[in-house]
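Tutorial sheet, problem 5. The two components below are modelled jointly, 637 residues in total.
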Amino acid sequence: MSALITVFRKELKDMFRDRRTVAISLVIGTLLGPLLMFGMIKMMASRVSTQMEKPLTLAVQGAEHAPNLVAWLKGQNIVVKAAPDDIDAAIADQSEDVVMRISPDYGTQWRKSLPAKVELIHDSTRQDASIPVQRIENLLENYSRTVGTLRLLARGVSPTAMQSIQIAHRDLATPQSRAGQILSFLPYLLILTAFLGGAYLIIDVTAGERERQSLEPLLATPASRTAIMSGKILAACVFGLLSLVISLMAFKICFLFSSDLGVKVELLMSTIALLLVVLIPILLIGACLLTLISASVKSVKEAQSYMSILMMLPLLPTIILMINPVKNQVWMFAVPFLSQNQMIMKLVRGEVISSVEWAVYLAAGFGLAALLWAVAARLYHREKLAISA
Amino acid sequence: MIEVQDLHKSFKTKTGLVNAVQGVSFTARDGEITGLLGPNGAGKTTTLRMLYTLMNPDRGNVKVDGFDSIKEAEDVRRRLGVLPDARGVYKRLTARENIQYFGQLHGMTQQEIATRTQALSDALGMDDVLDRQSEGFSQGQRTKTAIARALVHDPKNVILDEPTNGLDVMTTRGLREFLKQLKAEGRCVIFSSHIMQEVAALCDRIVIISKGKVMAQGTADELREQFGEQNLEDAFVKAIGTEEGLHA
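Model answer (structure tokens):
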């Protein structure tokens, strides 16, 4: 036990002497996520507000066929201009988001009280065009409904006859759950920080130490290999926990500032504490897995080559849930990464986590960590471990 | 006292099985310096690694003060001070912290460590570098730090793998004095070298190893007598059968 503490303290001291690496991984590594999210919220908010309110310039072909419609549109904060000659090309090179084409027989149809054709030309895969298209669509629908109502009135029919069903929405989304949509990638950032936050340290203390040839003298001391390994894992976990706390604090501050932007999320200190509890198993899993890898490979470089694969792992549940959203079920709380994803989302959305879910989650998380730890300890006892080159 | 009996060790490599050590036996007594002499690649480092329990022999056994290196590995490591081929001093720690770390791993108190560090520092002449971070240490300073670190727990048995490798003349002389001091303190010292003169100058007993086997062993006089040569160097050449390793 004392050997474990000795190794643990030495590794932390050794690491914090390497100021630049610590600064990069603690400050830049942890703050990048919150800053990224803050920037995204800010950009989204400013985009939505400017696109919704500022005058929209609309290219119209055949404006002369429907002077009343065009005049009405102009009254609705729309600036009408002539359409380019080649509409398809203009959409393709994004010089226009959307072009409206009024068909030449608009007038005749209109006078016969038949549906007059107006075409909206746009590319539905362009995010940028979706807001203008929606705006024009709403306006046209408004116009169509107003004129339709007037026509019915002129014929002595009540406009309500048109409405066989009245649809009313009652949205039960809480402010937290609404913000949850924006937060859908918060779990990934947090899981990644927990999973690989201490990666460089843990690779360095096993594969790096062997490469620098200091593992051989260390293993010649009476301290047991399991104790040495556990001390190293513990040091990495403390470092990972530190980066998580910094990261969560940064998210808290980031949300504080973004409340003015219409995103109301609050990370209470109690939520942060629960998030840390949720993330500790993944911290251990990451540290044990990386130790296992470091103990089995030949060099630091080889260990690092696993990083790109490991970085994808926490992304998998997010991708799967994006394509195939499924309801929470108990088994999910036993699947690594998916379970963290669900737990974090529940906490952030302010939902209640049942004691069964907690129990399954913690048992599965710590169970997997213990298994990886045992495998890593076995690898640590291999003869090859200490011998470099 | 270290007793080595019929050690065998082979490794699997891409090109096939390498028999690094095939039947090494010798005894190193307390109060004596035992030298393992042999050309590069003779199996000295592998033999020593089996002595300090880093590797398990395929066959044969090692006893340190009567403790078995496989069954009682921890007791064996407690009784050994080891300077491996790889020095591996922690660069971001000072020399003192390097020594302290190993002292703590041996379960010593801060007071014991401090006293012992001072004694070793005096003996090795490393007072001036004791509180410097070992990044940028010279080869000699690194070796001294590693030796002090290996001996912090005052072990009865000392194993040094090529301790004078890469050292200048003055540092080598200092180190020889230090080894003689260890011997005078009644310790059992084993050191390996591929340098003939060094072994001849220091060792009470010499074990000549080549191609993983013990070619000859005994005092310098016994070896000269055994091979009928006046010169130890000639005896060595006869023992290993080539001139390899003489001019290193």
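Marking note: The first strand of chain B starts at residue 2 and ends at 13. Full credit if you identified this.
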